[in-house]
Amino acid sequence: VQLQASGGGLVQAGGSLRLSCAASGSTRNINVMAWYRQAPGKQRELVAAITNSGNTNYADSVKGRFTISRDNGKNTVYLQMNSLKPEDTAVYYCNALTTLWGRTSDYWGQGTQVTVSS
């Protein structure tokens, strides 16, 4: 599975951005797609995840502001980020979990920088 992320950039506090992540390769085995982020000097953290059936999970810090969605036909996951705060500044990474023959693997896209200015 290959993941190609896009959509990062510089935005003022209170603004919005939408990240996209397109998957290619053995996409039929993907069960969960997610966005993680890593700020300078901090550990990578889960931002949001979505299953094949559309169940979602969000970090408490982004609930009510971020929305993850998935277009299974296009093998693409989106992260709509509204009401952005300076503390959302980080490199955002797309992730995909696959399960095949009982074995789970995860794949990472290249990061995309999101910078929120105050």
Count of discrete alpha- or pi-helical segments spanning 4 or more residues: 0
What can be said about the biggest beta sheet?
7 strands, mixed
What's the number of extended β-strand segments?
11
Order of helices and strands: EEEEEEEEEEE
- Give the percentage of residues in beta strands: over 45%
Mind explaining what this structure looks like?
The protein has no helices and eleven strands. Strands 2, 4, 5, 6, 9, 10 and 11 form a seven-stranded mixed sheet that branches. It has 118 residues and is mostly beta strands.
Give a brief description.
By secondary structure, this protein is an all-beta fold. It is 0% helix and 60% strand. A hairpin with a 2-residue loop joins strand 9 (90-100) and strand 10 (103-108).
Brief descriptors of the model:
118 residues, mainly beta, 11 strands
Helix/strand layout:
Blueprint lengths: L1 E5 L2 E4 L4 E8 L5 E9 L6 E7 L4 E3 L7 E6 L4 E6 L8 E11 L2 E6 L3 E6 L1
Parallel strand pairs: 2-11
Antiparallel strand pairs: 1-3, 3-8, 4-5, 4-9, 5-6, 7-8, 9-10, 9-11
